[in-house]
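User: Predict the full complex structure for these chains.
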Amino acid sequence: MAFPRSDVAPAGAPSTAAPGPTAETAPTVVKIVIAGGFAVGKTTFIGSLSDIEPLSTEAAMTEHSVGVDDAGGVSDRKTTTTVAMDFGRISLPGNLWLYLFGTPGQDRFLFMWDDLVQGAIGAVVLVDTERLEQCFPAVDYFEARQIPFVVAVNCFDGVARHQLEDVREALAVPAHVPMLYTDARARAATKQTLISLVQLAMQRLQTA
Amino acid sequence: MIPVDPLDFPADEADDEADDRAYAVRPYALTGGRTRATKPDLALEALVQAVASPDTLGLTPERRRILELTAHQFLSVMELAAHVELPVGIVRVIVSDLADSGSVRIHGLSSTSTAPATSLSVLESVLNGISSL
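Assistant: Here is the predicted structure of the two-chain assembly.
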């Protein structure tokens, strides 16, 4: 690797070092990608678990993709324009930091996904059954790259409007992909969603 | 002393801008027009830790801000982008430069085959951690 090891001060480092967090060991960082269409509840999902207030940053380098919003008829439900990526952080015992990265599911954003999924535990595809088509690209993407993912059907208002098997069929999600209901606002439900994903990732590792 | 990057604009002009949000220049001006970091595989979740003091002379406002933010805590490239309100691609370039000049340390540089997510014991810790939330 072309980089200096992180535990060694780089050559030429200033001697007048700031009193940084040198005494601490840097946390081990892992991440999970939360993919889904606009207004499906990604930010709410992240916020239900994050230690920090979910933050947002522009992911795209190019200006032309900034400010595009096709939320269309649902803009009353989500007014913020989000080419931005939302993310949150969860501190876990053992000096572990888990980042949750929310990313738009539309296929025109796929160019930034390679970066996102690199080194990720896996992904949660958050589904709004009223707009199923929004998650096709995400399902295809993770399936093609054999990235562990679960499909979580968000129950707005706590009501499941469709049978999971119907959603599976409509999305053409293979039988080996776990599918479950979730509620982006409820910590118990979002927690369970992440647990399913991590268990899946562990199974994959064990059988690999 | 840190060598001043010739690409930086003069400090005496930029220093008076107290409001970090009000960048009067286009983001690419902050990177000297570059869109690629010297560490292209710098992960978005790589943690940044300041080594140099934010009071170092010749720092641009966003560089100083990054050093301030990471002086007492680890922050990921992604978090820094949100805090300095610049696109993450721009922050990636700036953080790479800061690392090259020895002003910051980067932990968890890139996602290689040794990525934590590929370790069963790490995943077990994650699973236990989430379960106990």
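Confidence is low (pLDDT under 50) at residues 1-22 of chain B.
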